[in-house]
Amino acid sequence: MSIDLHIHSVYSDGSQTPTELVRLAVRKRLTAISLTDHDTMDGTPEALQAGVEVGLEVLPGLEISAVHGQTYLHILGYGMEMDDPGLVAGLARLQAARDERNAKIVQKIVELGFPITLEEVQTISRIGQTGRPHIAKVLMAHGVVKNIPAAFEKFLKKGASAYVSRFVYNAVEAIGMIKRAGGIAVLAHPIQIDPTLERLPGLLAELAVFGLDGIELYYPTQSSRVRKKIKMLTDKYQLLSTGGSDYHGDVRPGSNLAGGKNVHVPSHVFETIRQRLTKLKTTAKEE
Kind of pairing, strands 57-68 and 71-78? Predict the structure, then answer.
């Protein structure tokens, strides 16, 4: 049995609704999941309700883009109070930054001679966050590119012809936002941040001082050798180990939820997280 604590829905850049993801998780025989959309928890109520209906545990979550010095990274949050004023305001600022960037990217693409519109992008995104994958789909619909990777390569990735940067919090701010909302903060997919893992010890040492709770140990592209090295660091800095598939649906063809031939995340990971969250809530009440 496996769990999956890193999943994206149509509320950010995934291709399936929270309900569809919950049902897929049941078919995959997962015992618990977390919906971790980028910079939003708008899909969480639907995921929680769908979980109740089918008897699957769903942990509230999200993934925040951040920067630490010159290093760009993602911070996963679990167990936050969704109506926490600081979290709501913080995510609203990130969502506004995405909207501003989308308009600038579309304008650049138009200036390059491809007449797409912001309205088309918003129609494709339908609900939740609108971002670069949705712009990529519009470019595909216009026949400008054949697929999403090609759109990023030609127009949307850093350094490409229509790339525009956007506001992100620094990692300390992101961690604080999650923790003040009653959640735990986890460094996502460390192998993507530092493929050599040479800078990772220093990064963890710095972030642990500011309240980082865990690191994503189980991830599809992290081999057993890599996991062994990361596990040594989690022990050294007394961090929780988490894991997930980073599933986006059709946006990333060939990917799937955890379990089977994909990454396996043992169920004891969920129990450890739940115990930590329970302890946090108990401490907060006593204070």
Answer: antiparallel
> Which position has the token pair 């993507």?
192
pTM, two decimal places: 0.91
Rg (CA), the chain: 19
Tokens of 127: 């609900």
Please state which CATH number belongs to domain 101-156: 1.10.150.650
Residue 124 burial (CB count, 10 A)? 16
Query: Rounded CA gap, 64 and 7, in Å?
Result: 13
Residue 214 vs residues 22, 200, 272, 284: alpha-carbon distances, Å: 24, 13, 11, 20
Residue type, 255: S
User: pLDDT tens digit string along 15-27?
Assistant: 899 999 999 999 9
Which residue, 172, 202, 182, 216, is CA-closest to 76?
Answer: 216
One-character DSSP codes across 9-25: -TTTT-SS-HHHHHHHH
Q: What is the pLDDT of residue 251?
A: 73
The closest alpha carbon to 36, from 3, 11, 68, belongs to: 11
- The predicted-structure confidence for 36-53, as pLDDT tens digits, reads as follows 999 999 999 999 999 999
Write the CATH number of the domain with boundaries 2-90+168-286: 3.20.20.140
Q: For position 287, what pLDDT does the model report?
A: 62
Same fold, 2-90+168-286 and 101-156: no
Domain boundaries, the chain: 2-90+168-286, 101-156
Each residue's pLDDT tens digit, 151-198: 999 999 999 999 999 999 999 999 999 999 999 999 999 999 999 999
Query: Are residues 203 and 193 in contact, defined by beta-carbon separation less than 8 angstroms?
Result: yes
The string over 156-179, giving b where at least 16 C-beta atoms fall within 10 Å of a residue's C-beta and e elsewhere, is beeeeebbbebebbebbbbbbbbb
